[in-house]
Design a protein that fits this description.
74% of the residues lie in helices and 0% in strands. It is an all-alpha fold. Helix 2 packs parallel to helix 11 and helix 5 crosses helix 14.
Length: 338
């Protein structure tokens, strides 16, 4: 366990701290952070997901139906748990609760998945499938649900608002602003829009290739490897840079969000995975994936619409810091009980 902490977890936090310090010193700003995030989500991560999945085969994919179903059930259930908790216990608006759902119910598998799982469980098809399936659930299910609940037509991303505040333009339904019309995305198109993202369609394309029985020559691996290997380092650095741009707060809501994400989600994965007889290695990876900090996209979406920014960012910061303590615990527990 000490070896895992030294060789696998500490490097992640060193790079994240480097990004944080770089942001605080002004070496990079939020524009750079957005560029890094865009590079990871649109290029590096899709390449890593595609390359890792096509190493598998149809037999392996069909054996992962339990992994697919369990990931879907837990992520959706935890999203709505966080959503209704935010509404009932902390008295937030529907829009704020929609972002809170991502904080508690969606792990940052796209940014930290490979960085955490590969050094521990190896660079293989099984690791790639676990990361890909959880990434699909987060990007093709949880985020579209959040956009549906957020109702972007009532939030103008070009005009920041304080929590619970209502602008004159939003209240005046007879004269909607032009910018509001452009940003009015119909709820029914949320899933379609998500499927257009490379981080969603690239693993789906790889799965289709496997289902069709098409064998991709290993000679093409270097074509994707060169950019795929940049995924983990750039993603972790960008995470630190994003954290440096927001003020920090620590209250009972931040503590609650952190407990839901770092304790409740991996615990549910472990219990249900054990009950349905999931394979040991896959269950261990899934539990650790569930114990990852909240998805950074939640903070990005919240920042765009000036919704749940400070609490969401603080929850992300606390969860990221405490992940170093909880990750070894879940690695140990999952190895014992799986």
């Amino acid at each position: 366990m000490l070896q895992i902490i030294i060789t696998d977890l500490i490097p992640i936090f060193v790079i994240m701290i480097l990004g944080y310090v770089s942001g605080k010193r002004g070496a990079f700003d939020m524009a750079n952070s957005k560029s890094f995030n865009k590079f990871v989500l649109n290029y590096a991560l899709p390449a890593a997901l595609f390359l890792s999945i096509i190493r598998g085969n149809r037999e392996m994919l069909f054996q992962d139906m339990r992994l697919l179903i369990l990931s879907f059930v837990v992520i959706v259930a935890l999203y709505f748990w966080s959503y209704f908790s935010c509404r009932k216990f902390f008295k937030h608006t529907k829009a704020e609760a929609s972002i809170c759902g991502l904080i508690g119910g969606a792990p940052t598998i796209g940014f930290l998945g490979f960085a955490v799982l590969e050094p521990i469980y190896g660079d293989n098809a099984t690791t790639g499938l676990v990361v890909a399936i959880v990434a699909i659930m987060v990007n093709a299910v949880a985020i579209p649900i959040a956009l549906f609940m957020l109702n972007p037509k009532d939030n103008n991303p070009d005009e920041p608002q304080t929590a619970g505040a209502t602008t004159t333009q939003a209240a005046n339904t007879n004269t909607p602003p032009a910018a509001d019309k452009k940003s009015n995305v119909k709820h029914s198109r949320a899933l379609i829009n998500a499927l257009k993202e490379p981080v969603v369609w690239s693993p789906i394309l790889a799965v289709v290739i496997i289902l069709c029985g098409i064998k991709i020559p290993a000679d093409i691996d270097p074509t994707f490897n060169l950019i795929a290997k940049t995924n983990a380092g750039v993603a972790v650095f960008a995470a630190g840079l994003t954290l440096s741009a927001h003020k920090f707060e620590f209250d009972k809501e931040v503590i609650y969000n952190t407990c839901v994400k770092l304790i409740l989600m991996p615990l549910i994965f472990l219990i249900l995975g054990r009950l349905i007889g999931m394979e040991s290695d896959k269950l261990q990876m899934l539990v650790l994936a569930g114990a990852l900090p909240p998805v950074f996209s939640g903070v990005i979406i919240g920042t765009r619409y000036s919704t749940y920014v400070r609490t969401g960012t603080s929850s992300l910061a606390v969860s990221t810091l405490l992940f170093m303590a909880t990750a070894p615990l879940w690695i140990w527990l999952s190895r014992i009980f799986s």
